[in-house]
Amino acid sequence: xxxxxxxxxxxxxxxxxxxxxxxxxxxxxxxxxxxxxxxxxxxxxxxxxxxxxxxxxxxxxxxxxxxxxxxxxxxxxxxxxxxxxxxxxxxxxxxxxxxxxxxxxxxxxxxxxxxxxxxxxxxxxxxxxxxxxxxxxxxxxxxxxxxxxxxxxxxxxxxxxxxxxxxxxxxxxxxxxxxxxxxxxxxxxxxxxxxxxxxxxxxxxxxxxxxxxxxxxxxxxxxxxxxxxxxxxxxxxxxxxxxxxxxxxxxxxxxxxxxxxxxxxxxxxxxxxxxxxxxxxxxxxxxxxxxxxxxxxxxxxxxxxxxxxxxxxxxxxxxxxxxxxxxxxxxxxxxxxxxxxxxxxxxxxxxxxxxxxxxxxxxxxxxxxxxxxxxxxxxxxxxxxxxxxxxxxxxxxxxxxxxxxxxxxxxxxxxxxxxxx
Length: 421
What we know:
Elements: H1 2-35, E1 54-55, H2 60-69, E2 74-78, H3 81-87, H4 98-108, E3 111-116, E4 121-126, E5 130-134, H5 138-144, H6 147-152, H7 177-191, E6 196-198, E7 201-203, E8 208-209, H8 213-228, H9 233-257, E9 263-264, H10 266-290, H11 294-308, E10 312-313, H12 315-321, H13 329-341, E11 345-350, E12 359-364, E13 412-414, E14 417-419
Parallel strand pairs: 1-2, 2-5, 8-9
Antiparallel strand pairs: 3-4, 6-7, 10-12, 11-12, 13-14
Helix pairs in contact: 1-7, 8-9, 8-10, 9-10
């Protein structure tokens, strides 16, 4: 999240400095005004509106205040999205659900109306620009996305990304300084873009499609319709929003390439459609995972453990390296039995080339996790699934205890002892 939004945060730093200078100037002007006699004062100085592009804690009323004076919009950047979901309607005793409805309207970017009786403020904001980004723990997400939120379509407005688990590994990789500099320079160009003049003030400038970009978009738009008919109600809501998201992503992509672009080309549009398609598959996978029973989740996580070890494990691997089955050979056997009955894997005997007792290895027949669609939608069958692992190895997994491959099946570990039988 830091890498994706650092340029916006840097712009906020510049605005903070500008706001500080404006505040100091206002205080000086006000002090000078107050020091004069009444007949010589003239108009009382007014404080300038706060300029901002990043927020963290917003009510709809506070959002309206910001948008009135920051027409370019704001980014609501939250380290923990659970706070946002939990804050909806927290100050409203009679209008439950109104905050969610307002955010659904803001997502369209067309119109926002807020009326305050307490201080008689009335806002009518055309083209409100509000972005939301943040992170959340999967278990918290399962609790936060209530059935009411799904019925209202709130999750469908989010683009989710839930990478598979990978053990921490030290890396020296960083964002190169020249790349950071280039991104900051490009964002400075984007900040300078202006809306078009209009009879009623201003309006967003439209970027039209090149002749060969439109068929690519139309094909994807039709694809989202077909995809929405093949999934459940939650997946349908997500896919129905992705046609619009492809257009938004194409706009972002084209301006990132050229801030002065007048049209969106086919290459950018196709890339935007590919990205939107990925988000659609990811949403279906995540929704399925959120709806899992406890037993389904345990089985999926066990499959993911086997995948991380190359798609094949021994019983000893399971009770040694997989924490939920640590020192539990009987439970591990039950898990393997469930996978075998479901057709997800089978036992094979491995015979060492130098003799010795054979070792039983459980090998997955399908490497994708249970909550993941069996095949990604789209027209790129040649693209490999990054999570897929298929192995033709005829050797057991390498690990620190490979010199005891021929443990009997009833072996188990208790503390610092190995128990046989």
